[in-house]
Each structure stands twice: as structure tokens, then as C-alpha cells.
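Hello,

Our lab assistant flagged a job as stuck in the queue for most of the afternoon. It eventually completed. Since we weren't sure the result was trustworthy after the delay, we are filing this so someone can double-check. Below is the sequence as submitted and the structure that was eventually returned. Let us know if re-running is recommended.
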Amino acid sequence: MGLALDAFHWSPDQFWRATPHEFWSMVDARIAANKAIAAR
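-- returned structure --
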């Protein structure tokens, strides 16, 4: 939950309403964004 609140700026309600697929999609998107920034 801390990751969703801190990194994704989700509220606790958004975290608890999200499906596992939505959560892990956000994790994958954050990883891809970090790789793109690192490749600059």
C-alpha cells in the first residue's frame, strides 16, 4: 500500500478499489518510465 500511496499518489480508497491487474500495471509502467529516464 505504501508504494501505491507514495509512488503513484493513490489515496487509500483508490488502492483498496484497484484490482491486482491495475496495481501491477502501474508498477510495470513505473519501471518502464524509470528505464526510459535512465537511458537518456
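-- support follow-up --
The delay was a queue issue, not a problem with the job. The result is valid. Residues 29 and 35 are 10 Å apart (CA to CA). Helices lie at 2-6, 12-17, 20-38.
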